[in-house]
Request: fold
Amino acid sequence: MRRGVRFPAWYLLLVSVLGILSRCQSLRDLERFAIRHHAVLTEALGIELRRPPSDSSFRCFFHQVDVAVLCAAIRDWTIAQIPGSAEDLDQPICDGKTLRGSIEPTAGGGSAFIAQVMLYSAALGVATSQARYATGENHGRAVLRQLLGELDLEGVLIQADALPTQRPFFGSSRSGADFLLTVKANQKMLHHQISSQFQGKRMIPFVATDHEIGHGRNITWTLRAKQAPEHIREAWVGTSWIMEVTASGTRDGKPFQAQHLFLTSLRTTPEALLQLVRDRWSIEGWQWILDTQLHEYAHRYRGNGAGAMATLRTTAINLLGLGGFQSIRAGMQAVMHDIKALLATAQQQPHPNP
Reply:
């Protein structure tokens, strides 16, 4: 990078996002994409470059870029794209995942890897905030606390998986927000306390059902809820209800059954709670897109580059969601072979604040 052509950071970021939308899966793919569309890109963007960036250019850039600053800039841009900026951000869904391709063995016999945490809006279909961290340098709860600390949580509903369902995090991070938290089997005591309340012939005062047919699924969802017992309310201050949600039926022609447990501070109808729980699964669809359409698990980046590329993959999907595509797969098919459509997707202008 110190000799030859110097590429503006914004240009490398833009080409990377456009390449991801064209299903580029490696730095060599990004190089070929940049070569193929060099003339159109430089003319459309009004920039003069003697040659397109190579795979080494991208590798050097991803090694050096400040991922935290990149995430903050993308967060501000994403929120600016939303009409009204924050009106639909009142139900953030928190989620974390490991970037499997970044896993490396450590001297002690363990593993070190890059992980990501994001806040997702089911109403908008986009990730509004995201962060990456190395497991040897930080912890997911601290990163999530930082993301939530950037929001005004008064009156907000926080939906989350097992990551924040721990008392130290729970007591210090919700700042007036309501919560709907998943309780998983690895939280043995709390999981047992809740599941035992729905066993036998106990009276369950609140029940709701829903039926899902489509996309290879024929599933009946059933929610059972009751007031949280005193020992749970004392340990998890603010909890009003505990819930059991079961899903049974067929998926892709095969029998399917699942059970999930929750605790929540909300006091609303069982039907509304069931809908909120089902909205929570929309982020699983998001992760499925990352894995099946962008092949995130197939990437083998290490260190800073793993976090940078994961951030840009999330940004690419955000662009399609903000561009009005209801199906990410259909959106990619519509733009991936058309460089002008790709540029139009990436050049959306922020909505002015009312």
